[in-house]
Amino acid sequence: MQSLLAILIPIVSAVILFVLPKANAKQFALISAIISLGVTIASYFVFDINGGEQFSINVPWIEMLGIQFHIGMDGISLLMVFLCNLLMPFIILSAFKDEYSNTKVFYALMLVMQGAMNGVFVAMDMFLYYIFWELALIPAYFLVLRWGTGEARKITIKFFIYTLFGSLFMLVGIIWMAYYGTNGSTDISAIYNLVIDERTQMFLFFAFMLAYAIKIPVFPFHTWQPDTYTSAPAPVTMMLSGIMLKMGLYSIIRWVLPVMPDAVNEYGIYVIILATIGVLYASSIAWVQKDLKRLFAYASLAHVGIIAAGLLTATAIGIQGGLLQMVAHGIYAVGLFYICQIIYRQQQNHVIDKLGGIRLKAPLFAGMYLVILLASVSLPLTNAFPGEFMLLSSIYTFNPWICLFAGSGVILGAMYMLSSYQKVMLGETTGSTNHFHELNFYDKVVLIPIVILIFIFGLFPNSINDLTAPAVDAIINQMQSHTEAININR
Amino acid sequence: MNYSNYIAWIPLLPLAGFLILGLFGRNYLKNSSGIIATILLLASTVLSFFAAYNYFFIDGKIDGIYQSLKPVNYAWLKFTDTLSIDMGITLDPISVMMIVVVSFISLMVHIFSLGYMKGEERFSTYYSFLQLFTFSMLGLVLSSNLFQLYIFWELVGVSSFLLIGYYYDKPSAVAASKKAFIVTRFADLFFLIGILILGFTANTFDFNTLIQSLSAENSTIVAGSFLGTSIITWGLTLIFIGGAGKSAMFPLHIWLPDAMEGPTPVSALIHAATMVVAGVFLVARLFPVFAITDSGALEIVAYVGAFSALFAAIIACTQTDIKRVLAYSTMSQIGYMMFALGISNYGEDGAGYTAGMFHLFTHAFFKSCLFLCAGAVIHFIHSNEMKDMGGLRKYMPITNVAFLFACLAIAGAPPFAGFFSKESILHAAYESNMLIFIIALITSALTAFYVFRLYFSIFWNKEAHLHEIHHGEGTWTMKIPLIILGALSLLAGFIPFGNYVSSDGKIMHGHLDILFSITPVLLSVAGIAYAGYLYIKQTDRPQKIATAIGGIYTAAYKKFYIDEVYIFITEKIIFNLIGRPAAWIDKNIVDGFMNLIGNTTTKISNAIKGLQSGKVQGYALYFFGGVVGLILIFEYLWN
Q1: Distance of alpha carbon A374 from alpha carbon A376, whole angstroms
Q2: What are φ and ψ of residue A399, in 5° steps?
């Protein structure tokens, strides 16, 4: 039931939004998001950590094709739904001070996106999962197209074609598994029971990974990302970077590692190498960016690269670290892009060279920015540190040299992040920042909880670890039994 | 009283202070924040002394050997089934010695700052940062495992970053804080990988277990090797790089002189007495592994330390900013501690270990004394430059005496504190490595020269032009710490240090050899005399000498151009040769290639006009057509 609510509350709210008067659209969206969060928190308390998949609904759906409407949550799904629903109220609040034309549609699309993303996280039937995956893309596409800045049309088409192109390969993979492997069923149990020979695993692995590499994104499939993040309106950027890219990472855990473990062991190294190159590549590009939002976009690219690499080591530490880091990245990414938006609101741009001395005018803002920034460079006691350390540990056990390169992303991160902070916030004010205002009420309502969350998850990382550990173990066991089954077949 | 009842409060009280002042200081506790912080730290210091008394005199020893106790332990992050990360407290001779030093020096700095920072607009912020630093540093020295140590290691780095950049509207301070953060962070990457190597080799992060399993004679650990060197040596070397970053060893020292942009009491606490010796502490913490497992890494420690000691001493002779002289002096003295550890053995022949830790202990007092005196001078004269000073002994009698005591201590004049610790280092060096011994002797003479150059230039020499003497030497809160630290510069050396701190917990009998001491003492006296000859009165002798040695002087004055090398690497090479081309490639090649594919597709579809009907059904059809096509290709490849 709780799984269904995760999908239905936002989507039903989106429908109701159309009937409501225009003036109340954002308030309504906020209430809906808060209810979703409340339901998720409540379901955490009735969730049995060692109970495997729960809150399930499993009914026949398209019987002709053997597709079930099967949703449910294990610890990993619950964590991802929690992340999505945790961030949504802040994302909506962050837009409270901005006027977006056609408000009703704007918020309705955001809610549909939320519902679809939750759907991706709870779907336990591969075809259903695919439908949610595509469904999440459509509102994102319209949001960037309609409300984006700059060459929104061109950028959106690129974003859309790119991601759609990737999913096409995944769809082929799904269809193959359904009709050649499992006799029609795309249910998770059927998929997990498949014993696929190594050659086919390779094709499936690359088909799936292409979709995910584009979504995450992993170098060199990232070129849609900086443009889209920069062009999209702030709340949409937050959704894309905070939640949507986690769909790709989550999918690696759910659909790649347990289903094609031999291919992961064999070819995972290529993805790890690409991701690591991406870390260094994105970091060095971030350093020369002149626009703050674009800099954060490249920073995000570097940060998720380490997550992708850690997941593909296919170790418990890597997956746990990846999950911790997904939550951490979601929280601070929302913070960073909101910081951009606060600056943009007052300055109508976020060009680094035009800013300066904001700390003199807005010390509280500067303090919050610094905490979020330090989280983004994985400082201990912030939420990004335990995850980063576990990821690097897993990469170390995989290959110490790759660990050295992936780890240097942390240094480079400190370099470009601090340099930009220095230019934007410190020193003397420039002409335009002379009248910079301190945070208003809504800014505080968004940024203060984000800072608190950064510390809570930084101080108590076990709260996440304990929730997901059994599910991660289940994934690892599934991988092992799969590999054994293949060896027996051979 | 059981340690577990109170020991955790030693770091937690400053943490509480940080939270209280950080949250409420700015608005509600503006003027009382200094007092609140000082009282909290006083309590913490009293507890530290109490713990030290208990440990060293009551119950720390079993069968004549100091034990390593672990009164507090809390599982923080489960890693794998067998490997978890704890937060705990370790009590052993070095950690107990360090909490005394850290809390005490921090208390002195807190008291001094009451006067020094009075009237600052961000007074409470300053104190909250000081409390954060003290918490982190105490947590660092009490850490029970490598990982926890790393956490606090980073936290002291952040507090240092925040305090160096305290004057955030001053571009040089901001640049210095960034530089300190990045340089130490760079070193920390190697540290982190070193931790991973040791942690995964021993399958634990806990110090006691780690040391036992890696340094046991019949160790069952099978460590691989890389480039003909054991993986453990690599791990230790990487960890040492981390320590060298924090402790400003060559060539990672470049951040330390710039860090002097922070308020002077901060320099006394962080960049002289406590944080910068964290690298020495780290080597000492893992010393059994360093010493027993193999000596390769320890040799690196020894030579890096010795080189840094000499290198920094040469630069210190030429600097004119009094804080920078002291900064290079700190680097040089830490070099001493490092090579003392580097030449030491474990157990019976561990004289170097005890000597190094002894020097860390005495250095904390006299160096913080020097910095606080410098702070008082800067407070009085409103300048950091030697040329603005002179003849201050008349105006600042207490500072004069305290500074003189500290100078005699660092120069190694008997019976001041530095004499005892430095002699034991020199003795240990003499017995194990002649080259290092000679370097140490030269450095010792240079040290005497540059501190007395400093002393004479400030308190003697010409008469400074004092436009208006609007205040006296400073408030009593500034004088008391100077008096206490000055007295300790004289007295701290009489502690029989070897009875308490040694590499294996047994008593290390130090022996003071009068005959051996003659040479170093004479060299120190020569250094002092030469400084007096050049600087006690205003003459043109220094200028003549500078001209006579020309190039060497300029090179040393320019700090051997190390900063320029770094700027060249980061700005020119990384920024221009990597960052920019990467951005260009991203835009034109990677993205361009993807666009090319896209454009080609569009052109093809344009060529087959009519396909672009614009109708959704049409697109859907092509989409599924594409899927079917791909399936066919898949089928083909797979069969």
Answers
A1: 5
A2: -165, 115
DSSP class of B89: E
Q: What is the pLDDT of residue A322?
A: 93
Q: Do A316 and B80 touch (CB under 8 A)?
A: yes
**Least confident window among B334-338, B580-584, B634-638:** B634-638
Residue B510 zone, left/alpha/beta (φ > 0; ψ -120 to 50; rest): beta
Percent of chain A with pLDDT over 90: 26
The SS3 of residue A377 is: coil
| The length of chain A, given as a count of residues | 490
C-alpha span between B406 and B485 (Å, rounded): 8
B637 chain-A contacts, CB cut-off 8 A: 203
Closest C-alpha to A409, from A268, A293, A306, A287: A306
Q: What pLDDT is recorded for position B478?
A: 82
| pLDDT number for residue A429 | 77
Give the pair of three-digit tokens for residue A440.
């208003």
B577, amino acid identity: L
Residue in A closest to B187 by C-alpha: A411
Quick one: average pLDDT of B556-560?
73
Domain residues of chain A, as ranges? 2-489
A:273-302 residues touching chain B, CB 8 A cutoff: 281, 284-285, 287-289
Contact across the interface for B630 and A168, Cβ inside 8 Å = yes
Query: Which B-chain residues 267-306 have CB contacts (< 8 A) with chain A?
Result: none
Q: What's the mean per-residue pLDDT of chain B?
A: 81
Decide if A248 contacts A298 (C-beta within 8 A).
no
Kindly state the DSSP code that residue A217 receives in the 8-state scheme. Answer: T
Cβ-defined contact of A175 to B627 (cutoff 8 Å): yes
ipTM over 0.85: no
Contact of B594 with chain A, judged by CB distance below 8 Å, is answered with: yes
Best mutation site among A288, A368, A408 for testing chain B: the one with the most B CBs within 10 Å? A288
Per-residue pLDDT, B576: 73
Q: Which of residues 440-469 of A touch B (CB under 8 A)?
A: 461-462, 465-466, 469
With CA atoms as reference, report the closest residue to A130 among A82, A205, A87, A67. Answer: A67
pLDDT beyond 70 at B427: yes
Confidence of residue A79 (pLDDT cuts 50, 70, 90): very high
Q: Is B181 left (phi over 0), alpha (psi -120 to 50) or beta?
A: alpha
Give the tens place of pLDDT for each residue, B247-302: 888 888 888 888 888 888 888 888 888 888 899 999 998 888 888 776 688 888 88
Q: Can you give the pLDDT at residue B614?
A: 47
Give yes or no for residue B613 having a pLDDT over 60.
Answer: no
Residue type, B528: I
Q: Are B140 and B93 in contact (CB under 8 A)?
A: no
Q: Do B102 and B137 meet the contact criterion of CB atoms below 8 Å apart? A: yes
> Chain B 188-217, CB below 8 Å of chain A: which residues?
189, 192-193, 196-197, 199-200
Length of chain B: 639
Q: Residues 6 or more apart from A313 whose CB is under 8 A from it? A: A268, A272, A394, A395, A397, A398
Which among B80, B178, B590 has the least Cβ separation from residue A220? B590
Average confidence (pLDDT) over B325-347: 88
Chain-chain contact of A390 with B79 (C-beta, under 8 angstroms): yes
**DSSP code, position A151:** S
Quick one: average pLDDT of B236-244?
Answer: 90
